[in-house]
Write a structure and sequence with these properties.
single chain; about 325 residues; mainly alpha; three-stranded antiparallel β-sheet; two-stranded antiparallel ribbon; 14 helices; elongated
């Protein structure tokens, strides 16, 4: 079929091109058609490789949200790389990243996330002997500006608590996020049995299904008791949504999106920009470090595998640095 197409084009171009130009045209056509055939042939195989990779990540304990992000990223890559996944070169992937940033107008931090996903995928292909060497090894980390992400001021937290005061569930969520520093994904997966009100502690399952114990303050305990006293259902989830249909109420575990929307809506209502659940986590990390908690203990509290991640979350106040310097050096 390829040869027929090439011969047809050569016949139509006869008389317009010199012999050397005709030979070059034939060479280019052969190369392009070969690449298209390779991409078409590798389409089903590429999808299968992506599925196997996602399965491997699931076995490693990857969360469903991360799985979906990996899948959408790799599916888009597979459709737009212009060749089979196994034949992608370093140059081709670099060109793809440049193209991706251009069409999506994304920041370097987002682009580097795409690079890391592709790197993880090709590292897996190499380890599973599908390829000899990952083509991403020579594509280094994309530099991103180091911006200090904001934390909540005490006044802002009190303003949001006041705005949520009419809803016992929402104020309990705000207080638990603020005092424990748990992830929103960890919060929505909490069960009633996960909470020990007497010891003011809870068992959460973090990234990689790792279990850890974390803690909350007295105010959170009081708000949790108020909220739980309003519950008349038998749903095991700690935080629920409910829908009223006629005389009945249907309860279901609250979702990450619901919590994010609730915090965002309260932020809009109170004119607090950038209100989202993860900001409470950053605020708690900064607060406990500023008050002298050893960074290793903060790492355990937050459930970080690497201490460098903990340091990224914590904004150590400059006045505390000055105080420690004067106390130790002067």
């Amino acid at each position: 079929m390829n040869r027929e197409i090439i011969n047809e084009i050569k016949t139509r171009m006869h008389g317009f091109l010199k012999k050397s130009q005709m030979e070059k045209l034939e060479s280019v056509l052969e190369e392009i058609l070969k690449q298209q055939n390779t991409a078409q042939h590798g389409d089903s195989k590429g999808k299968k490789l992506v599925e196997l990779f996602i399965t491997a990540k699931r076995i490693e304990g990857c969360s469903s949200r991360i799985e979906e992000y990996y899948l959408s990223t790799l599916t888009f890559f597979e459709k737009n790389i212009g060749c089979s996944l196994l034949s992608a070169t370093t140059e081709r992937i670099r060109e793809y990243l440049v193209w991706y940033q251009k069409i999506n107008n994304c920041r370097n931090v987002t682009l580097d996330t795409i690079r890391r996903i592709l790197s993880s995928f090709y590292k897996w292909l190499e380890e599973e002997d599908y390829i000899l060497k990952s083509p991403i090894k020579r594509i280094h980390k994309i530099k991103t500006p180091k911006m200090r992400k904001p934390t909540f001021f005490d006044e802002q937290i009190e303003i949001m608590r006041k705005a949520a005061a009419s809803n016992s569930r929402n104020i309990a969520i705000i207080d638990l996020l603020n005092s424990s520093g748990i992830r929103v994904s960890e919060l929505v997966n909490l069960n009633r049995t996960s909470i020990d009100l007497n010891s003011r502690s809870c068992i959460v399952f973090g990234k990689g299904a790792k279990q850890r114990e974390t803690y909350f303050d007295v105010r959170t305990k009081i708000e949790l008791e108020k909220y739980l006293s309003t519950r008349t259902d038998d749903c095991n989830a700690l935080f629920v949504n409910f829908r009223k249909t006629g005389k009945n109420k249907s309860y279901s575990r609250i979702s990450v999106n619901s919590v994010e929307k609730m915090i965002r809506d309260i932020g809009d209502m109170t004119n607090i920009k950038g209100a989202h659940p993860h900001r409470f986590r950053r605020t708690m990390a900064t607060k406990v470090i500023s008050k002298g908690m050893p960074i290793e203990q903060v790492q355990l509290l937050l459930g970080h595998a690497k201490i460098n991640t903990t340091l990224l979350y914590a904004n150590v106040k400059q006045e505390n640095v000055k105080y420690s310097y004067e106390r130790i050096v002067c």
